[in-house]
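Please fill in the sequence for the structure shown.

STRUCTURE ENCODING:
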């Protein structure tokens, strides 16, 4: 039997009275790409920290295969402040990095002892190319000043340096905690493609559902301290999870019906229980456990009334804003309409957040005017808005804003009831803010914004650190929100569900209005780039190729090859479909899973190669 890369058995972790997980077991085999899904506060980051050896646990075992190379991207990475960007890339190294350091020490030592042997090893491990590769990855992540000091980087830049560090080490197993946070859309798509091309095994936590769908081949959900495994991507998980929830609902409903009957029997026959039906009494208590279960399909119910909104929203008239040579707005004018839902996209540093702060009156434009309607009540969710007093209780944070929240139609909620709609249990409400996870703090912050009954929501990166359950319901709320929405987000799935059109920031005050969601924009952009490439091809080459093909006739050997390729492609496609079906079945042993996971990329490559050859031959006359 092949050892799995990672095996976790009966893992238990608690913080005081809070049990995060109990007797949790899972394994990661070679070639597996696993996405981990759970509500905020249930210990996703803690689990990754335990696996990476950065945090202890109460009981259980975490075992890696011997000599396995593991790289871990933390949610909040830290490096020594005096390091440069490039040095940080080599901070958590592998054998190649250690070899480079050995070479540097040798060069600093008088007489350069052992240099010949080191040079041979450097050649063998292709160490000379290593720095160049690091620079290429950093450039893809928009980090180009390699000598910049780590202490001068923003949190987002630091996360990208850490991502480059994990990728450059070329691990066998890559563990990622929210890898797409602080990446713009282009970088996210580059990372998506990079991971799909490699043979890395993967365990990651992310709220980016397109990323999960395209990169992961398996989803693990932690729910109510239990593990559920789904052998497929995010779309498959959604389908199968719904089946599980519905099945559980049916089971609980049956148990409830039987429980009512049995409860009546228990009450009516107290004497009979002692000698006639001890087994039935035992069965009753087991049944009671099932009947009293609640299916943990809780939702954040954002049924908050929006204030009345008039016909005049806001008008931007000839706005200009620059920081030195960097132009943000240049003669920008726009009239926002009632119930409009605008998405803002663009590379980091193009001025998206500055534009929002100008709208909110937090930053003054250099020139131009901004006229906001009298009825407008902004609800502003900012990237740096989590300014809670750590020593306050969660309930006090909300009660400072309002004791009672208006829902409309005469309905009201107390602050405590309102928090329960946001999945804050009574225990958590009376706990202190410092005990909340990052995602729970985001949820509390969102709660404080929405409870003020705004009619114009301005959301700057609202999806960072929110769990998928919260995101689903926030999306549903925004779709039905009776007001205006302006959202800056790198979450493509979120944008597709929420916005009507996009304001695209291309940099240097080049701002375009695109009518459609992000996927529409991406398709248009790809089509435009393809047309540009076609237009740039030399016309002479095109003409020459056509004439060449006009003269060519397919040889007997090529005809045989063409026919054989058709058969082979069909067989490979059938094998691919079969492997994918088996992988989703959930019945394989670790050995079989490893074998099939290895075979699938081989089949995909063969299909691509043979299809390419078939296309070449198909252009020749038969």
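FILLED IN BY: designer on duty
SEQUENCE:
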């Amino acid at each position: 039997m092949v050892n799995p890369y990672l095996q976790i058995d009966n893992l238990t972790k608690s913080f005081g009275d809070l049990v995060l997980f109990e007797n949790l077991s899972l394994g990661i085999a070679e070639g597996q790409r696993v996405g981990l899904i759970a509500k905020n506060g249930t210990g996703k980051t803690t689990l990754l920290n335990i696996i990476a050896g950065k945090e202890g646990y109460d009981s259980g075992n975490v075992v890696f295969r011997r000599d396995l190379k593991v790289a871990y991207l933390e949610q909040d990475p830290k490096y020594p402040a005096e390091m440069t960007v490039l040095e940080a890339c080599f901070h958590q190294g592998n054998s190649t990095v250690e070899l480079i350091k050995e070479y540097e020490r040798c060069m600093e030592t008088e007489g350069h002892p052992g240099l010949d042997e080191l040079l041979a090893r450097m050649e063998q491990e292709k160490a000379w190319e290593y720095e160049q590769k690091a620079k290429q990855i950093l450039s893809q992540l928009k980090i180009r000043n390699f000598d910049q000091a780590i202490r001068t980087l923003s949190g987002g830049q630091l996360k990208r340096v850490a991502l480059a560090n994990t990728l450059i080490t070329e691990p066998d197993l890559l563990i990622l905690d929210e890898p797409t946070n602080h990446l713009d859309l282009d970088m996210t798509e580059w990372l998506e493609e990079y991971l799909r091309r490699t043979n890395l095994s993967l365990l990651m936590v992310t709220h980016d559902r397109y990323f999960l769908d395209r990169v992961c081949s398996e989803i693990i959900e932690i729910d109510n301290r239990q593990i559920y495994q789904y052998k497929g991507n995010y779309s498959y998980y959604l389908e199968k999870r719904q089946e599980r929830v519905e099945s559980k609902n049916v089971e609980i409903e049956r148990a409830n019906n039987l429980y009512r009957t049995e409860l009546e029997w228990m009450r009516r026959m107290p004497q009979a229980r002692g000698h006639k039906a001890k087994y039935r009494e035992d069965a009753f208590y087991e049944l009671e456990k099932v009947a009293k279960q609640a299916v943990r399909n809780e939702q954040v119910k954002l049924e908050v009334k929006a204030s009345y909104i008039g016909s005049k929203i806001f008008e931007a008239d000839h706005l200009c804003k620059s920081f030195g040579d960097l132009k943000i707005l240049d003669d920008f004018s726009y009239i926002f309409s009632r119930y409009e839902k605008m998405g803002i996209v663009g590379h980091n540093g193009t001025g998206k957040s500055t534009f929002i702060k100008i709208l909110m009156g937090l930053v003054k434009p250099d020139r131009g005017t901004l006229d906001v309607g009298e009825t407008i009540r902004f609800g502003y969710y900012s990237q740096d808005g989590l300014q809670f007093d750590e020593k306050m209780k969660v309930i006090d944070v909300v009660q400072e804003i309002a004791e009672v929240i208006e829902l409309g139609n005469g309905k009201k909620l107390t602050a405590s009831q309102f928090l329960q709609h946001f999945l804050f249990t009574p225990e958590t409400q009376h706990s202190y803010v410092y005990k909340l996870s990052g995602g729970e703090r985001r949820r509390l912050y969102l709660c404080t914004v929405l409870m003020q009954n705004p009619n114009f929501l301005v959301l700057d990166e609202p999806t960072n650190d929110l769990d998928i359950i919260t995101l689903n319901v926030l999306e549903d709320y925004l779709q039905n929100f009776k007001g205006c929405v302006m959202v800056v987000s790198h979450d493509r799935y979120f944008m597709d569900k929420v916005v009507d059109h996009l304001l695209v920031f291309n940099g240097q005050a080049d701002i375009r209005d695109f009518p459609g969601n992000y996927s529409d924009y991406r398709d248009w952009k790809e089509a435009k780039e393809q047309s540009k490439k076609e237009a740039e091809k030399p016309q002479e080459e095109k003409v020459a190729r056509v004439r060449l093909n006009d003269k060519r006739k397919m040889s007997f050997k090529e005809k045989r090859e063409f026919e054989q390729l058709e058969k082979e492609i069909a067989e490979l496609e059938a094998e691919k479909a079969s492997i994918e079906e088996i992988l989703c079945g959930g019945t394989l042993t670790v050995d079989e899973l490893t074998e099939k996971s290895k075979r699938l990329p081989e089949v995909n490559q063969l299909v691509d190669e043979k299809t390419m050859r078939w296309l070449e031959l198909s252009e020749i006359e038969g």
